[in-house]
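Problem: given the chain below (251 residues), write out its structure.
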Amino acid sequence: MDMGYMFADCFALESIDVSNFDTKKVKKMNAMFSRCSKLTSIDVSNFRGNELEEFRMGFNECTSLISLDFSKFNTPKLKLMDKLFYECTSLTSLNLSGFDTSNVSSMISTFLGCSSLTSLDVSNFNTSELISLKQTFYACYSLTSLNLSSFNTQNVVNMESTFQNCYNLTSIDLSNFIINAPKVVFNYMFYSCINLKYIDISNFGFPSNGTGTYVVFNSDKPSKGTIIVKDENAKNKVRGQIPDWEIKYKK
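Solution.
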């Protein structure tokens, strides 16, 4: 069953009742509510994702949406959730505790532009099959912290702009991120994270022949801080961009 684009581009829609939808056999919900820009709430608490495989752009540009509750969702077959909450700029509450991400391969721009979220709990996420974290948390302006300790990045090859424009992040511990692929893209990963003071990337194995520029900061980079790296090679990759930072090795 496919519910893709069911309510897409319903720009004038101000309310909707989907509380009785039976979604247990639905395989696709791509762009289901995309650009429903006047909706402030959608009750998805009874949605079940038993057979769901694709949920790309599900709430793309739902700019007035304030909260969503997926605590009972259960998505054991979910593979794609790119741009799921893209530019949900008014979202302040997001319960993802029902998500099973063990088969998800791509989270490109999943939370991009969720600028009103002050907290985001993804501690239940299993990312063992994940390949791309490109722009996943891009422009989550209001986040001050992010717990990614459950993330498994053994298959990730793209972390471009993952945290770009997360202006209020003060620290980020990625010590559990094991990156050893021969070519991994890290371009703009912490670009414009102007309040970062502590970064732990102590398990990032920067290959000498990897693509792109690593852990890029721009002219608005924080002036001083501490970064934990794996080895001399990693130190050489980052020190030119953050010359006033203290660079330490993994203990």
